[in-house]
Amino acid sequence: METKAQVLYDFTAEPGNNELSVGEGETITITNQNVGGGWIEAKNSRGEVGLVPEDYIEIKQAQPFTSGGNAASLDLSLFDSHIPTPAPASTAQVDVAQPETPVTPVTPGFSSTSPDETSNGNDPWAVFDNNASGGVSNNWAAQPEGTETGKTSSNAWHSGGHGHPQAYQGPGAEDDEWDEEWDDVKSSGGYAESDAGEGGAINRGGAHGSSMKIALNKFPGFSKSGPEVFLLSKQPAKGTKLPVYGGEVGPVWAYPDYQLDCVVADPKKGSKMYGLKSYIEYQVTPTTTNKPVNHRYKHFDWLYERLLDKFGSAIPIPCLPDKQVTGRFEEEFIKMRMERLQGWMSRMCRHPVISSSEVFQLFISYKDEKDWKTGKRKAEKDETVGVMIFSTIEPEGLPDLDLIEVEQKCEQFNRFTRAMDDGVKDLLTVGNEHWKRCTGPLPKEYQRIGKAFQNLSSVFTSSGYEGEAALTDALTAAGKTYEDIAQMVAEQPKKDLHFLMETNNEYKGLLGCFPDTIGVHKAAIEKVKEADKLVATSKITPSEKTTMSKRASTMSYALQAEMNHFHSNRIYDYNRVMQQYLEQQVKFYEMIAEKLRHAHSQFTTM
Fold this sequence. Notes:
The chain is an alpha+beta fold. Helix content is 42%, strand content 11%. Belongs to the sorting nexin family. Keywords: Cytoplasmic vesicle, Membrane, Protein transport, SH3 domain, Transport.
């Protein structure tokens, strides 16, 4: 007997994802209820077959749709159990057997779990320019998490090695294709013109790699495309509670007594497949244990993907340093990548939620290979991901906010982060131009001055007049002084401007994530605004409407806590980097002044 179902909400299929577009009130035939991950396979009246979110339908045999038009309340039962979809046979990788060799520190093995990087165009803020509701249409499934970054390529979830996260396959089953093709952007050692632009090598992953990818996918917790997953969830909260307290500056995260940090150092070249594959390992040493563990770049990327899946809806997770194919083993590139990995890890360590999470602690302090495999499997099967991370957040002693307050806070943060994004990019542009001048035309000008003094000294010497030796020697010394200054000018950006540029590049990437995070909150606000209509059509109950408002308030407190964390870090970082920059500038000009004073002393006072 065929199983019929009534469609409760409009759902728009994404091309290439084997999904089926359905409309509210439509009757469909279920062809497979065991797809898993919150999806079912169904056929419409036109004979088209595809995947539909199981919470968008009501099975007639279980809960008949009445003639009066009263639909059953939205049931988010997909969160009661998640069965990861097994990878298709076509994507299976050939294992290459290798003997396990104990290494201290241990380097974990990985299977490929990272989805393809998606692009958000050239402007991550465009989502707020085009739609007052934060880029979210009235169709709940139109845009994942209330942003535009959920649009994936047609084969994003079907390419080999990039499917649903699988359990660890053993040390001989590492994804070899990463070794040669994982890095795909050529990076310069200094600050090329593109670095300060939208698509520069500083950005990871293409046109605008700094924005996060919060996508509609087949992972547990992301099976639906908006904050309503959390707003109407009937699932009890799972995972460690994340309290938010009222502080002097407003809502704040709970900070640990001890500030975690880690050191990324000692890069070494390794190989496998009998030397056919080469890679660079970095040693990561946390301050908590002082015991190092080894990680490759792809391991860092695995951590990034896990953090993004779990916390990305509530906390901006900046992308890793850029990827590269050629020159991966050049000393300058290795040094630059290590420095940027250090910056990324330090920023993660400073976040109280990220640094205390199980997956992050596993990454920096796993005990052995068995410990790593167990923790890795657990992280990849975590159900509290996507917007469901808000279910673990508990405002301690804070009153519920009304919708107007929530919307005002969201807009305030949106305006500030957008303005700061413009300011950071402007400083990067100016710094890039200054770097070019310091390493190009400016030293040449000093060299020309120095040579002109020395040429004049040679002319004076040719006069044969015996009383001018002191003058010609002083002129020659002055010329050499200006040549020394030219060399100092060319080397100075690496001593001061470099750190200022690196800090701004970090913030450029971090600010590029905020449109996605804020977009989730704007989408939630829109859903709460629709609550009256949903109550009127009996799609939700009045109590569920109240629950939606309370949960939107919880989301707002999380956003405020995150913004206050961002502000405190911003003040600390820019104080530190500006002090460092100006200290180096003072030393630089003092050295120049000392050289000029010495040159001045060579001339006879008449």
